[in-house]
Amino acid sequence: MDIASRGSLRTRIEGLVILLVSLGYLWETFNIPDFYQLPDTPGPKTFPELLGIVFAAMGLWLLVSPRDLMARLRARSAPAAGTAPAAPAAADDHAAPTGGLFARLGLDWHFVALWAVVLGYLWFMPDVGFPVATFVLLVLFTMLLGEMRWHVVLGLSLAVTAVVFFGFKYGLNVRLPWGVLEPLVN
Amino acid sequence: MFEHLLNGFAVALLPLNLLIALAGCLVGTLIGVLPGLGPTATLAMLIPLVFSMPPATALILLTSVYYGSMYGGSTTSILVNIPGESASVITTIDGHKMAMQGRAGPALAIAAIGSFIAGTFSVLMLTFVGAPIARYALLFGPAEFFALMVFGLCTVASLTGTNVTKSIISTCLGLMIATVGIDLVSGAARFTFGNPFLQDGVDFVVVAIGMFALTEVVITAREVHAGTRAQIVKAGRVWISWSEFVYSLPAILRGTVFGFVIGMLPGAGATLSTFIAYNLEKRVCKNPERLGTGDIRGVANPESANNAASGASLVPLLTLGLPGGGATAVMLGALMMLDITPGPLMFEKHGAIVWTLIASMYVGNTLLLLLNWPLVNVFARVMRIPAKYLMPTVLVISTIGVWSLSYSAVDLVLTGAAGLLGYYMRVHKYPVEPLILGLILGGRLEQAYRQALIISKGSNMIFFEKPIALVLLICAVLFLFLPTLLKKSQQFRAVQESASAG
């Protein structure tokens, strides 16, 4: 599969996802009970219906966009004609990395690890507590960014956690949770 | 008017407000000089802090941070070749070349002077034109306001991305997220899926921090990992000669006037104004061939246009309730959270606050000049803090910003989801600003739409029968096709691509 075709496939998948989301949105809109609707006045369904239709139309456009088809045709015809590859013309929106499935999706272990650390922090922070979760996040994130000296990583993470936690909790009265450290504090 | 302005100065010069303005300018500049973190992310991160403040003080903080981060953005453009935001893209052309030639000092100095002149001019203009525009806008009914907001959304959609379809998708998504929660008119729960936390709707701060701050942290982390972070040039002595100043003055004045006029347009005013001002400068100045090779006028002109446009973008924000871009959209959201809805009645209902804000902008501009000139090298040192230490801290502070809104774990999950979506959108060139603007304006847009339909007894023809509404809707459609016309200009394309990348 050439670059333009892969980019085009992604655009079509985006179009399909947008279309499905808009259909789900419209489905939910139609399920709003009718008793909220007063006679002769625009009710809670009116505006979402309009939005859902425009969003669906845009998704459909991406799915069958002629601009995309033109890019594909150009990409196919250019090598056949023996001219320079058409990739630059299509590169704007259609560039896609080469390699295995993971790489083709623009993913690698570093990328996945970064997001896992960020999302894990957001998910677990309220339960684990701010100090422990933040310390772990800082250690992992700093190491992912290439700092491997343990004394720097641990010292910096501990210092930043302490300054931010006490600064915001007691300086600005933000209710940051102690979490698993709660028994120690009490 | 002058009496109001003097009252504004009396409040703005109160010791607490002066201190807040000073702190705002410092914090704004410090965060603004961090490559990647522009005014929008900076404002989004600071919004939770302003809740506990009186409205006037909160506004002073927000505007001084906004101005400060704009100044900071030009510093990164010149020294690192990374524009703080899309409006500083043009500055990199001559600014970074000057820095590479060892003339970073004059470039930074003229950026500060040009910004000061342009900033002061735009505040002066806001003083004189703000109230008359607001009085005129009082004639607007719901149909006109609906058309006006559609116009604003279309201009932002057409000027912030490289592909109009993607911009419309982004805008629609923002408007759709805005419909989540209890419908205030009928009481119907919409798109809450039975989750009580969603009944109040999705807070724009949650989405803005996810899409701007979180994605910026991950994108920077990727650049650090890939080793593609840019080199930083040392500034040296920040000073310009009298002859250099005289040589740059016409460029500053032209940039200021063009920047202000174009900046009043709702949409990507600042970006477009720098592009048009720079192109016009090339046509009217002496020795235009020098521009682009490290000419000081190439810094003076876009920096003046940029700052004049930043001030000008507050005109539609305060008088019509229409933000000009990401940063002013976040400011609008903050104002609404403080129970101040900008619009034609703003000067009547919250006159004291508006005049305090205008007075504080005069003060802020002066403070920035006094601060930036001697301290630019100190600010430049902030850029040298390795991203591997800085980015995790930005992530932690952003998380506190979201958590402090309502201490809800759902908000944190939504921030993560917004971050993932924002990352995908930025990588695949879906502009993020229209989504945020749609989310902020969604509620008011729906309200105006429904009010107009109630007046017309359900007929959509009301939008075509009212002349002002019709003209605005026609302009909105024309604006959607504007990028197609402007695509012939290579420079505009470059600006647009930088805007979508940034």
UniProtKB/TrEMBL annotation, chain A:
Pfam families, per the entry: TctB
Q: Which domain of life is it from?
A: Bacteria
Membrane-crossing segments per the record: 9-27, 47-64, 107-124, 130-146, 153-172
- Is Isomerase one of the keywords? no
| Keyword annotations | Membrane, Transmembrane, Transmembrane helix
Residue ranges of domain DUF1468 in the record: 14-177
Name used for this protein in its record: DUF1468 domain-containing protein
Give the source species.
Rhodoplanes serenus
State the organism's lineage: Bacteria, Pseudomonadati, Pseudomonadota, Alphaproteobacteria, Hyphomicrobiales
From TrEMBL, chain B:
Ranges for the DUF112 domain? 18-437
The answer to whether keyword Transmembrane applies is: yes
Which keywords, in A-to-Z order, does the entry hold?
A: Membrane, Transmembrane, Transmembrane helix
Transmembrane residue ranges: 12-34, 46-67, 107-129, 136-161, 167-189, 201-221, 257-280, 317-340, 352-373, 394-425, 468-486
Recorded protein name is: Tripartite tricarboxylate transporter permease
Query: Which organism encodes this protein?
Result: Rhodoplanes serenus
